[in-house]
Request: fold
Amino acid sequence: MKKRQEKAANLRFKSKIPEKQARLIGFIIVLPVFFFLFYKIFAYVDRNTVSAQQFVDLQQGKIPHAGFRRAHAKGSCITGVFESNGALSTYTSATVLQTGTHPFVGRFSISGNDPSAPDLQSPVRSLALSMSDSGNSQNSEWRMAMNTPPVMPVATPEAFYAQLTAMAPDPETKQANPQRIQQFFKDHPETSAFLDWKQSYVPSNSFAAETYHSINAFYLLNKEGDKRAFRWRLEPSSAEQFPELDTAKPDALQAQLIEILSTGDIRFNFLVTLAEATDDENNPTILWPPERTSISAGQIVIQRHAEQGMCQDRNFDPLVLPQGVEPSADPILRARSAAYAESFRRRASDVLFEGGR
Amino acid sequence: MTERKAIKYYPTRSRLLHWSMAILIISMLLVGLSMVKSLAVWQPVALSLHKSFGVLLLLLLVIRLVNKYLTPRPRLPKKMPDLQKRVARLSHFTLYAAMLLMPLSGWLMQSADGRSVNVFGWFTLPQLLDANIKAYAIFRELHAWIAWLLILTIALHVLGALYHGLIRQDRVLASMLYSKKPKG
Reply:
């Protein structure tokens, strides 16, 4: 024991670095070591992942359309009310799902980053809503961003990024490369439900005649703390025929939407599908069996076409949920929020500095 | 000011406030920088904790400012060059300003996106303004710029502390580490 102490003392004594220099080295080295450590932690957390910035870079394309949403750039703003029938009141404490008439601002859009793209060439149509209860009480807001496909092609943001990359125009030919797309779907068998839907899907002649799906699953939560996974869809329920589409117009769907709303409402049935124990709420690539109970929660009544400005300030982040609705652990759903935030940040910056619309 | 008794070491409550906030702030900066990039499943959880801890830090700052006003604090060594004293004062002012502006800009940017800030599921802060994309741009970018300013100032602060502790070997670093003169 004593020997060891002597040895240690000797070692310290024999150190060639004088104390003053040791202190100087300490002074110089501590901060860089910390920064290096933090950098390494970051690199470790980020390994094998796609960042929100990379994602939005890909979505917006080489030359972003300043002031527009980086995805679903082209759309029309609307307002209306949700006539909730309270049918889900035993499942959830969300005030917008209790009996009442709850106002919303919303937006019909087509997919893609081009704000002047022809309406009828887009493969996906969307409806986003931001709804609060009639008293506009705290934690009552529900933002929804719904698409025509009932399922996602892939289950993770990384696979989704790979899909967008595969579908992007080839830098040389400026055209999508069908071989690359085919290869992607071959490598991703989880896309089968989506491909089946795509095969059978025939685009309707109106925004008002599409069915819009929640894409991901969420939970309904009641006061007793019971949780039930669910998906929802809006099914068209307007009885009347819609005016003819002027298919030559790039704004065909928008023009028709304005025409319909100038004379009447557009109605959708808000249908909620409850999951059973065997359904995986965290996988958006799988359709739940058709025999699952669907409950009508009420009618979405779209009443007016609104100025773009009403939607400009809004980020339809699907993770803004009312008390009584919670997100599932679906990786796509969790990723949407951060990607929407990055897109909103870029658009907001455009609007502030360039006065974009 | 003149009535304050000169002391050599910070009292325990001051050191507790300093170090707990230091740990929280550095964690907040690291979480903040990674969560704005991440598409991972934990991102929304991190975001909600970031907001809650941001409010907690704002409360701690208020307590700290009251404590700062009431508590005597050690003087800087008399022999320190004037320039260094000025840098010390300016960097401390910047730290306090950033500690105030970080949570405020965060709260304001949430408000400008039409969101309220919920604190650990206990209560919800009111929205400070109506949804407004230009206001969002201002506060969102401010939140990021002040974060980087804070990171640089903390680096300077640590460098200063090490300079006092290792090079000058005066009592400045020790005054935030110990309650009295350490043995040996």
